[in-house]
Amino acid sequence: MTHGRSFFHIVASLIILHLSGATKKGTEKQTTSEGQKPVQCGTWTKYAEGGIFTSPNYPNKYPPDRECVYIIEAAPRQCIELHFDEKYSIEPSWECKFDHIEVRDGPFGFSPIIGRFCGQQNPPMIKSSGRFLWIKFFADGELESIGFSARYNFTPDPDFKDLGVLKPLPVCEFEMGGPEGIVESVQIVKEGKASETEAVDCKWYIRAPPRSKIYLRFLDYEMQNSNECKRNFVAVYDGSSSVEDLKAKFCSTVANDVMLRTGLGVIRMWADEGSRNSRFQMLFTSFQE
């Protein structure tokens, strides 16, 4: 995520995590280094106009025992197109149970699956239904190959074709702290962050006292376009505003209380131009276990 800049600019975030994997059924599990934690596959990178990512060591053979997760995020009203290079080879297996690429339509490992791919034929072009794609590359302990190279770019979301191009978003961030307090959407206009007609993507950073955690209780909540998460939502993050720290996201008629495991909570409200009557009010309380 970017802070202090307009989300009108296309932002792509690749989160690349490296974990040890498992070998085929009937063989012992292997690790990259016995007794040591696995290292990361790469770093968090951002490209304004799309970018490229590859399996480890591409175009040489990828190493054994790898599990790399890539998360791509587009700006509001954008979708993602993912293209795999023809120079592609991943160990084939029945239903791609061993080495494989798995692609999901969303930011999580439980988002709807688009497909699982392996073998010598590169996957077809893949397009997300919204702002995120989740891609996992898995390699077991045997039969490595050259892997893959993938390119991603962004296209307008067809769900918003009648609304046109989103205007630049105002910078909208708040810093809050202490043992308790109120976070509410009316702060946006009261503190001059945006007018009542502008689309907003606002964040409230709540910092608890040392060694404390945070409990969040909704006092008021209503989304103008209920169940349309692309148009309006309230999200809660635990520890940072990165997508992997998303704790809960509300865009329907009900919002539940949330208990955080860290002392940093981030509340995010997204509302497009036609959803500015969406509102919320939340009480935060710090506590120690």
TrEMBL record:
Gene Ontology cellular component?
Answer: glutamatergic synapse; membrane; postsynaptic density
Q: Where are the transmembrane segments?
A: none
Q: Entry's SMART domains?
A: CUB
Disulfide cysteine pairs (residue numbers): C41-C68
- Indicate the secretion signal residues: 1-22
Q: What is a single molecular function from GO for this protein?
A: ionotropic glutamate receptor binding
Q: Where in the cell is it found?
A: Membrane
**InterPro entries referenced in this protein's UniProt entry, alphabetically:** CUB_dom, Sperma_CUB_dom_sf
Q: Which Gene3D superfamilies match?
A: Spermadhesin, CUB domain (2.60.120.290)
Pfam families documented for this protein: CUB (PF00431)
Chief location of this protein within or outside the cell: membrane
UniProt topology in membrane: Single-pass type I membrane protein
Q: Name one GO biological process term.
A: positive regulation of excitatory postsynaptic potential
All copies of domain CUB, residue ranges: 41-155, 172-287
Q: What are the record keywords, sorted?
A: Disulfide bond, Glycoprotein, Membrane, Phosphoprotein, Receptor, Repeat, Signal, Transmembrane, Transmembrane helix
Q: Which PANTHER family match?
A: NEUROPILIN AND TOLLOID-LIKE PROTEIN 1, OVOCHYMASE-RELATED
Name of the protein in question: NETO1 protein
The major lineage groups are: Eukaryota, Metazoa, Chordata, Craniata, Vertebrata
